[in-house]
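Protocol step 6 of 9: fold each sequence in the batch and record its structure tokens directly after the sequence line. For illustration, a two-sequence batch is reproduced in full.

Sequence one:
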Amino acid sequence: MTGCKLSAAASQRAELGGLLLLALLLLGAGLGLRQPLNVDEERFLGVSLEMLQDGSWFIPHRAGEIYSDKPPLFMWAVALFIRLTGSPKLALFLPALLAGLVATACLHDLGSRLWNRRAGLCAALLFLATYQTFSILRAGQIDGFLCLWIVLALYGLLRHLLLGPAWSWYYLACMAMGLGVISKGVGFLPVLMLLPYSYAVRRGWSGVVPMPGQMRAWLLGLPVALAAIGVWLLPLLVGVALHGDADSLAYVREILLRQTAERYANAWAHREPFWYFFVEVIPKYWLPPVLALPWLVPAWRRRLARRDGRLLVLLGWVALVLLFFCLSSGKRKLYIYPALPALALAAAPLLPWLLHRWIAGRPRRRRLLLGLSLFWFVAWFARGFIEPARTGANPHEGIMRQAAELTGGAELVLTEWREGHWLFARQPIVHFGFRAPATVEQAAAWLRGHPQAFALVPARDLARCFRPERAHRLGGTSRATWLLVGAEADNGACRSDPPARVYRFAWQTAGAALAAGR
């Protein structure tokens, strides 16, 4: 009997090892070849590099200006991986890769504990097979890193609520939620799982663990979560209280109020209708599991009718996450990704039955399904290498390299700029703020007072203030074609008031472009 147990444990470890290898191959394919290409990746890598340069860990900066859109934990993680690897373009993608590996292991273990080994295997494979997993966990964005804390919180809560009592796991979940909050404000979402759990306990559903008379132990989770949040928030508030200026106070108000409650209730960007996720996101980004919903939904309904508390807790939480984001006026396709691991876990025990129903006695259908599954995984692995070769280098890198060569490294004024201009700058840059970037009129006025400087101007605005024949074309990005001008190109037609703020910034190394290219 002992030998059988050891053999089963060894087999389960081998199965987990195979799943982790699959996750590493799928999510890590092309790692080291990828460059930061979209504005989010450029921004977070730049903020992380600037943290390493100026040591401002609690109040992040973007080209010398305070960056107040997101808490700093993700940027801390990227900075740490830069220190460990020496390669910024590799470090940017490692937090999401780590999250994918942890999520795979947690789902395999939870499925095995809640149902059986086949369910654990199916939960991990469903998670890895879903399109949104590839689109988020292979990107250098916060939402991939957020997945790490969401999954750890789900794991701890489910070990406690469905397999407990296990208070140590509950407190681990609370800590993970706190760290999730200082990664992105919605890191608290797993706590919503207590709502369907409480209903199941009151109604006497099976599969949940009642824990009466433990109110003090439950409430202790709040200070644990607050302590995790305090890793960033406490030093920030103390520092601002003792030495803060008006900008620091404005940062605290912005990050704690405007970027959280106000952004949720009255978003100023990405405004979409209530049904956006159900029409535009789930049908595409939750493929292929969404194809099984016509069979899964009736099966879930039958199990819920038998009062299966495990499914109620999982599906109830998925529904609450979807409702939470549907009620917000601002929506992006990646917002609902935290619900996906729980959905995969809820579908996992039914997948073997469903596959048997589809392919039993139909060898041709069995071969077709196996072939499609292999093609799906191989295609995503191949895409990890094809995509970096197809997209090539970030166009901002070439533009900023040419600008430095043509100006001899002189000061460069940025107009209508984006994060790529700052990330790949190889010379001192001047700007007047990111949210209200310099206009071509302001650039012309600046060059009159600083004739040794140059300006980077989009082609569509050039002729208003500068002579086109005196400009040097540098190249194009998705937003504009960019030209370099000096004071001698001024046509004298533009006047502008002095800017309210002037920010100067320079990378201390040869530039983030060189560092990002290692």
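Sequence two, same batch, same settings:
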Amino acid sequence: MEEPGKRVATRGVTCFSKIKMFLLALTGAYVAKSLSGIYMNSMLTQIERQFNIPTSIVGFINGSFEIGNLLFIIFVSYFGTKLHRPIVIGVGCVVMGLGCFLISLPHFLMGRYEYEKTISPSNNLSSNSFLCSGNRSQTLTPTPDPKECSKEIKSLMWIYVMVGNLIRGIGETPIMPLGISYIEDFAKSENSPLYIAILETGKIVGPLIGLLLASFCTTLYVDIGSVNTDDLTIALTDTRWVGAWWIGFLICAGVNVLTSIPFFFLPKTLPKEGLEDNADVTKSNEKEKHREKAMGKKRGITKDFLPFMKSLFCNPIYVLFTLISVLQINSFIITFTFMPKYLEQQYGKSTAEIIFLIGVYSLPPICIGYLIGGLIMKKFKITVKKAAYIAFCLSLIEYLLFFLNFMWTCDNFPVAGLTTSYEHERIQQPLYVKKNVLAECSKTCNCLTKTWDPVCGDNGLSYMSACLAGCENSDGTGINMVFQNCSCIQSSGSSSAVLGLCNKSPDCTIKLQYFLIVSVFSYFIFSLAVIPGYMVLLRCTKSEEKSLGVGLHTFFIRVFGGIPTPIYFGALIDRTCLHWGTLKCGEPGACRMYDINEYSCFQQAHLHWVASSSKRIKLPRVNLHSKTFEEVPTP
């Protein structure tokens, strides 16, 4: 009577313990981690404006995720295989949720966001002090207040964001190496590429949701619910606008915690896929477990760590693949970290619109490419040597194709005294090097010369403030305010101006479409190369070294790509800043406008360096025909 009961229970556990159940749970974890990751990258510009920090610090905040991942990746990759891998992955998901919650915490600890402005939202007599007036006894200048500097600079509330991102990196550590090794251990070798392709697809579904969430949150004002948005004098396209970035992080925290639940109910080991009902195999697995326990007691848990490390470093294919991956990740990180800022400045669109366009044009082709790459590897049983050639060639083609995007460039915003002179009206010319903010038409106005509160004149030229445009009167309230009798605006109209920078030419919108169309093909080719590349990484290492090999590969990517790249490139972006925002105490804050031509040159130079370096790394014949490849089974 007991045997049937046991048989039913065992059958139920076996059914629940199939590799596909783990694959489903792991795909959910991939969706959650990529959701929070892409949302973080999309909100970097909002965080920069919220805390009034330069891009170099933003790069450091972004790199803190890699630092957290780096601290535990090797140890988790090695020791995790000896522990209960699903539970370790579940704990990691919970830690990621904690990190996301900590990132959102500064919003509740600091006061309301006060953007730099010279304009009062109301229209009364006292608010006309921001307009041109020659009757003032002294020039308007911001009054330095040491207490304000202490509040704005030394409070360092952005450290909460950095620490939260670091904790998020720690939590993500076990998901990929332990998840991939778990699938490799218990899945059929011919199914492994398809399963990994499904996981990579999950990494695309997450960013797709994340970008849509980021686009929505960016349209909401950061202090929504506590301020009257009708009184705002900035629009979505304004570089002082800050969206409700904290809402998305709270959602990401909840999603990460929910995805952790299934892992606590999954077993430590599984029968090999396709052999679940084979009694001989079950007995063989039991004997294998006893043998592993005996070997563990005899050798110790750490005795084979150094031999594994030596074996990986002496594996030429593994070392070569890791080197190419480091170069590849350099361009990848720059593209996804700073691309929203670049497109926003290049084409004059709002952050919300740019994030939405990136999601629509880039993620679907990547998702399709992942699935096609996995199906091709499974259908044609491509050998590892062929997979190496395919991945290498496709990556180079993708780099060269992406270079075409830098042909579709626009001029800088025409800002009088900053990018063009007061005498020129929308004339395309090199960057105005004199930077004479004051002109004859506004010298007697006693204007603030550092405050960024731009207006657009009827002549198509932007001015840093209504005062610097020589405007004497204003009409309306909030974002609908109109300035009149502007002496610096020379046009046949009423010489008036409205809030915000002037829109870029219609040709710029067309160039943005070209950029996005080329990006579709670039991302598709890139995604086709990912699965063959993954197969090279997994098949060029021994089965017992796979988890450590994946972890060590990730370790080098973090050290030489993920951490330094956003920091040094953020510093390069700061060098292209044309005008810094001003804090209440007079210190510089976040950058309001960049020299987009120089910015673009930095992007091109970096991609050229990556592509040329990849070309110099040739695949030696000795390595391709070495025993390393011949001994490893192909899918």
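Proceed to step 7 once all outputs are recorded. Observation for sequence two: The chain has two domains: 17-129+156-271+307-410+507-630, 411-503.
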